[in-house]
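Subject: sequence -> structure tokens, single chain

Hey, anyone have a minute? Need the predicted structure for the following. Not urgent.
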Amino acid sequence: MAFIGKLFNALRRSRDRVSNAFQQIVKEKVSLQSLEQLEETLLASDLGLSTVDDILDIVKKHSKENFINEVADYMQQSLGHEKELEIKSPSVMLVVGVNGTGKTTTVAKLAKYYKDQGKSVLLVAADTYRAAAIAQLHQWSKRLNVRMVCNEKSQDPTSVLFDGLKSAKSENIDLVIVDTAGRLHTYKNLMNELEKMVRVIRDRFPEFNLCSIMTIDANLGQNSLHQVREFAKSVHLDGAVLTKMDGTARGGIVFALKNELDLPVLFIGIGEELNDLNEFAADEYINSLLGLKNA
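Reply:
Had a minute. Here:
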């Protein structure tokens, strides 16, 4: 199935909620009651308060026209042009996030994505507190035929990172992807550890271009905004991977991330297979969310 078709199916729950709310207004005409119902639905889909207010204004202004298209145009402008993460050789990508957001699987998907682009990739298993994560990443690395650096005898992720970057430097690897430990932003020692990893990259391996991506479970909705704010205090975030899109009715979180935190969604994960990761495309996303196009 083509990605657009997968995305359309993945956003079914969000689309059923959002599109139906708009269609209800079309049937019942714009009224105080129908606008209140639309507002409630859009907020429940986690579009964010400012985005919802703007959409309601558009519906009122174009109530006698095809306001759905006007809303789609506004959404497109709101998200702006997609940000493409430029990976210059050599680069190191830190993949961060809280537990349970699909971080390790996303690392494997990213490895395949960039390997398919012709880049040499090295994986670093720096989630030293969870043996299952190392074992899982090892299995992915074998499937991808990509080398992985780990140290099962050490619980110091910075040490593992150092070994990985030293190895990558000697082998002229294009991209090092680091699976960091899942952590809650309230775990100060783990956040300090993340900051230490960033310092080691910048101080000891300045030739590597550093980028950081945060995995966000789409089911968390507005709760993820607080997590992003806290992570951003310890590491500069270049973008997000929105995971588990196929199981959520909160697909509007993309707008809140961009408009409230200026954090672009770079990739969307819509399944567990290695191919179930695609670059975020605003037009495809908006059309799938609003049910304007069924690919």
